Amino acid sequence: MADDPLSRSPADGVSEDQLFDRERHIRYLEMNYQILPSPYEGQEINHLTLAYFIISGLHILHALDRIDREDVINWVLSLQAHPKNEDDLNNGQFYGFHGSKSSQFDSVDNVVSVPNNSHLASTYCALAILKIVDYDFSLIDSSSISKSMKHLQQSDGSFMPIHTGAETDLRFVYCAAVISSLLDNWSGVDKEKAKNYILSCQSYDGGFGLIPGQESHGGATYCAVASLRLMGFIEDDLVSKCTSSCIIDVPLLLEWCLQRQAVDGGFQGRPNKISDTCYAFWIGGVLKILGANKFMNERTLREFLLTCQSKYGGFSKFPRQLPDLYHSYYGFTAFSMLQETGLNSLNIELGISTIHHTLI
Ligand SMILES: [Zn+2]
User: Fold this and answer.
1) How far apart are CA 264 and CA 276, in angstroms?
2) Which distant-in-sequence residues (6+ apart) come within 8 Å of 142 by Cβ?
3) C-alpha distance from residue 9 to each of 17, 34, 63, 64, 189 (Å)
4) CA of residue 166 to ligand 1 center, whole Å
5) Domain 20-353, what fold?
6) Helices (DSSP H) in 61-190: which residue ranges?
7) Is 121 helix (H, G, I), strand (E, B) or coil?
8) Residue 308: is its pLDDT beyond 90?
9) CB 352 within 8 A of CB 346
């Protein structure tokens, strides 16, 4: 294996904890893939989201051969909610994907219409997984998804993730944008309204809050900028282009993002918070979209992230803690952005790797 460009050994004088341990990360994801979903059954987080972290993580790590493609496709497709007929598409419900089997209600013999509970975030994860395994998207009933998703958009332009009774914020605008982009069908989104909602979330300090008037936050800022990019309202590399005509305040946004890199090299989600692995992606990703990643200190960011790398594989939220799938995934995406050897490159806006047919 000495010639394998994907493996780096610590034998060249670099200590082990200074290296990104790709093999151990693959084993960590493989272990989670094999035992999914039973250990997480008690958690609120849905199985599709966990599967997205595992499968997309393996793709970033160039190890998609560890999964059974057909099994994955069949399982994801089994979670899709289907309208019984064309009229159902006007009943206000969303026909996307369920987060897990347990949220699929059996409505046979039920006279009353039972909500199907499919969710925008689950739908984003389902479509992302299908994209990663190179499923043929012409086989997906995209018009049911788009037509019913239209009902989730509120009059202020925001999105509700399910058909009724949930909060609306930038996260779900982002989910709707990714879904539309993956399906290549934007008929489910009033882009102009969505844009105005996003712009109303930019705070006085340049970052974005989850809803208008809320404190700026790294995750919300990513959702705002990535959505605007997916909808075509902003270009890549904004920082090097004329910014005075841009619909967002780029200099203030840039300053807010750069100030989130703390003295330990990691990124914090908000001022006065400690560095957390996931913000290396949420805020590092915004800087990358803006074409401003050259202004962050990549060396110290890498050093911080390696203090969160677990000896069991995966990444933790804070240094020297136990890993979890969420922070592991965003650790991998961060190392991909840092151009770690042997990792697939990322589509920052979509949050997945860009390279397909890499099953070897
Ligand atoms: Zn975090």
Assistant:
1) 11
2) 183, 184, 185
3) 11, 27, 18, 22, 48
4) 23
5) Glycosyltransferase (1.50.10)
6) 69-78, 120-132, 142-149, 170-183
7) helix
8) yes
9) yes
Ligand 1 centre from 39 Cα, in Å?
21
What spacing in Å lies between the alpha carbon of 326 and ligand 1's midpoint?
A: 8
The residue ranking higher by pLDDT, 86 or 126, is: 126
Q: Ligand 1: distance of its center to the CA of 278 in Å? A: 4
* Distance (Å) from CA 92 to ligand 1 centroid: 34
Is residue 108 pLDDT above 90, yes or no? no
The set of residues, in sequence order, having a beta carbon less than 8 Å from that of 306 and lying 6+ positions away, is 17, 18, 19, 20
Residue that the structure tokens 């993730």 belong to = 161
- What is the DSSP secondary-structure string of 311-352? TTSSB-SSTTS---HHHHHHHHHHHHHTT-TTPPPEETTTTE
Neighbours of ion ligand 1 (CB under 5 A): 276, 278, 317
Q: Write down the pLDDT at residue 236.
A: 84
Q: What mean pLDDT comes out for the span 9-32?
A: 79
Ligand 1 center from residue 284 Cα (angstroms):
13
Measured torsion, CA atoms of residues 276, 280, 281, 284, in degrees rounded to the nearest 10: 140
Q: pLDDT at residue 306 above 70?
A: yes
How far, in Å, from the CA of 269 to the mean position of ligand 1? 8
CA of 205 to the centre of ligand 1 (A): 22
Contact 316, 310 (CB under 8 A): yes
Q: How far is the CA of 277 from the centre of ligand 1 (A)?
A: 6
The answer on pLDDT for 113 being more than 60 is: no
Tell how far the Cα of 317 is from the centroid of ligand 1, in angstroms: 5
CA distance linking residue 270 with residue 256, whole number of Å: 9
CB proximity list for 67: less than 8 A, separation 6 or greater: 33, 55, 58, 133
Output the pLDDT for position 109.
43
Distance 59 CA to ligand 1 centre (A): 21
Residue 41: predicted pLDDT:
57
